[in-house]
Amino acid sequence: MDAPHLPTSPGFWRSPLRGPRFTSVLGLVLLVGITVLFVTGLLSYAAYNPGLSPVNDKTPDKGILGFYLFAWPTHPHWLYRLTQGVHVTLGITLIPVLLAKLWSVIPRLFALPPARSLAHALERISLLLLVGGGLFEFVTGVLNVQLDYVFPGSFYPLHFYGAWVFFAAFLAHAVLKTPAAVRNVRRMRGSEPAAVEGELVSPRPAPPTVSRRGALWFVGGGSALLFTTTVGQDFDGLRRTALLAPHGGAVPVSGPNGFQINKTAAYAGIDPAETSAEAWRLVVTGRTGTVRLSRAQLAELPLHSSALPIACVEGWSTSDQWWRGVRLRDLAALVGHEGDPPDLFVESLQRHGAFRRAALRANQVADPRSLLALYVNGEDLSPDHGHPARVIVPAAPGVLNTKWVARLTFGDL
Amino acid sequence: MRRRFRIPFGSPFQLLLLACSFALAAYAGVRLLADDWFGVALWLVGAALLHDLVFLPLYAVADRAVVRGLEAGRRRAWAMYVRVPAALSGLLLLVWFPLISGTVDRRYRSATALSPDGFLARWLLITAVLFAASALLLALRVRRATKRRPSAVH
User: Fold this and answer.
1) Which of A39, A100, A171, A251 could be a cystine partner for A258, CB 3.0 to 4.6 Å?
2) Are both A164 and A288 inside the same structural domain?
3) Percent of chain A having pLDDT more than 70?
4) A193: pLDDT strictly greater than 90
5) Are residues A338 and A203 in the same domain?
């Protein structure tokens, strides 16, 4: 009757590790971990201030999925560095847990009968969204941070809407399974006898090559290895320990401009002729009209300093750099917005790139640490860091810190 | 009396929960599929199928081959000494494949001004260290075991 050479037979699956306890531990880790990933992901979307202007919003047809959006604050200045660093680093760290979890429940995929009831049939369809959606989110994220844009479309809508599809299935799964998982883990921690039951337990287990505890250490070891070779890309002092992460290892150049670059001037299509002292003029428009300023004229305005990081949506960041330039609110005052600066529309010289135009909210413009920077770490900005001038705003995602700024337009957007 | 075949419904709570979940998934799903519905559906379903029907069986078969090979030499207990470094090295390759394989070399270099050359070398070195550490631990364990059980035959 039982044909153990077919995966539909419980006897086909012989690992003695499989069982409700192993799956429950991994499931609870993912419950917490994926919840953090989802929340930090939603925060990242809010950090772009998508409600402010269409240029900030790569998912304009989001509907109610943007219900939670709020004006992104500028305090603490490392806020986005933290939330997005956690999002990407934790996501990479959870990969072994996800793989182990999927391994632990694989017999269920083949279990017969395919459906015991309508609810069971629907649950199995929901599991396709859970597994497919989860892998989709992990794969698109991992590819995007490596600049490998092979997925079918733009990263932002895929990862954002994909997250909601995945989360819908995740939520149902969590509600259905968490109580049992908690019970299993409680039982494990208590001194109850090792009851061997549950459909995941192999009816003819092979002799073990590792204990269940050992297997959990194995999964944790995989996570630890990924974590320690990735987390360094968020700290200048640890960068060399991020052995395989895209922004680990070396700095691109030495000297004051020697910190990580998202997109170089050449990549963004910046023509050096347009950024020369003779050619470049900053065009500032506001209530009282338009002012054109050369870089030398800008440098004669009151200059201020801010220590702020660059934090990228790809999950890497720099430690605080020492920027020097003109306050955005002083530039607003120059064109008639005294005291209470409005929103700001920033345009770059760059030819391509999704964020060659970006909008900043009034609270970001008003922050005294928000600068149109001319210098960094005591030297002129290098072309790759945005020479002649770039925006730097506390807690904002890297792409809103526009480089090679050509035009600033103050006013309601 | 006629007996009809009835489909069992299952838990009503579960049905309501799943209906709610599907409605939310569909709301996001129509937006997810708005541009290239076929490509996205292929990626989403393909990811699950590729993992469950190709990737997982492949590594399970490889693992079984290792355990069988060790069994043949009565060394089954050594499986973890092979499994751990192989799995950790494979995991790093899986996650960082675009960088290690060099498929994004040109874009990576021109966008970040960083050199893409070190990834393969670093992965190989990490792999070497993992296997070396495992071999060292195994050698220590074997040595300790032989000391504890001195040979009776001379």
Assistant:
1) A251
2) no
3) 97
4) no
5) no
Residues of A in contact with B40 (CB under 8 A): 152-153, 158
8 Å CB contact of A147 and B107: yes
- Could you tell me which of A34, A61, A56, A33 has the C-alpha nearest to residue A46? A56
Whether pLDDT at B96 is above 70: yes
Residue A5 lies in a domain: no
Q: Is residue A254 part of a domain?
A: no
Secondary structure (3-state) at B57: helix
Asked whether residue A297 falls in the same domain as residue A224, the answer is no
Q: In the predicted model, what is the mean pLDDT of residues A342-369? A: 95
Report yes or no on A353 lying in a domain: yes
Using alpha carbons, select from A320, A336, A317, A308 the residue that is nearest to residue A393: A308
pLDDT in tens, A3-50: 688 999 888 999 999 999 999 999 999 999 999 999 999 999 999 999
Tokens linked to A345: 């529309």
Asked if omega into A152 is within 30° of 0 (cis), the reply is no
Amino acid at B90: G
Assess whether pLDDT exceeds 60 at residue B97. Answer: yes
Q: Is the domain of A147 the same as that of A201?
A: yes
Mean pLDDT across the stretch B114-123? 95
Please identify which residue in the block is written with the tokens 């090792």.
Answer: A194
Is the four-CA dihedral B37, B39, B44, B48 of positive or negative sign?
positive
Quick check: helix, strand or coil at residue A282? strand
pLDDT of residue A1: 45
Question: What's the complex ipTM?
Answer: 0.93
Query: Domain total for chain A?
Result: 2
Sign of CA dihedral A78, A81, A82, A84: positive
Question: What is the spatial distance between Cα A127 and Cα A94, in angstroms, rounded to a whole number?
Answer: 19
Mutate to test the interface with A, among B66, B92, B96 (most CBs of A within 10 A): B96
Q: Of A173, A194, A228, which residue is a domain's last?
A: A228
| Residue range of the domain that includes A91 | 10-228
Same structural domain for residues A38 and A177? yes
What average pLDDT does chain A have? 94
Lowest-confidence region among A91-95, A270-274, B74-78: B74-78
Please tell me whether residues A187 and A306 are part of one structural domain: no
> CATH number, domain at A277?
3.90.420.10
Do A158 and A224 lie in a common domain?
Answer: yes
Instruction: Search chain B and give the residue with CA nearest A109.
Output: B52
**The domain boundary residue, chosen from A193, A228, A263:** A228
Residue of B nearest to A164 (CA): B28
Of the candidate ranges A186-195, A248-257, B3-12, B98-107, the one whose mean pLDDT is the lowest: A186-195
In a domain, A388, yes or no: yes
Q: What is the pLDDT of residue A15?
A: 93
* A56 half-sphere exposure, CB direction, 13 A CA radius: 28
